[in-house]
């Protein structure tokens, strides 16, 4: 058995091999004008998450959509820790495939 670290999409639960793959999935599928955290429509998703980045999940979503570029050093470190804590999962490969 081989186990590997992966990242789980917080919106739909799909698992991706790395953060880059999760980010491109998130941007393609989940970036729209609806914030599932606030359960309301927003004009601009990135701006919306920026404004609410004191909230853990909005900070995570901001990074998923926009990367780390708009964050200062302190926020970046926090976001990196959060991504590992909240989204990283260990998947175990077995002969039958994998389970998470
Ligand atoms: Zn997803
Ligand atoms: Zn929101």
TrEMBL record:
It comes from the Archaea. Gene3D superfamilies: Classic Zinc Finger (3.30.160.60). Residues 7-30 form the C2H2-type domain. SUPFAM superfamilies: beta-beta-alpha zinc fingers (SSF57667). This is C2H2-type domain-containing protein. It comes from Stygiolobus azoricus. The lineage of its organism: Archaea, Thermoproteota, Thermoprotei, Sulfolobales, Sulfolobaceae.
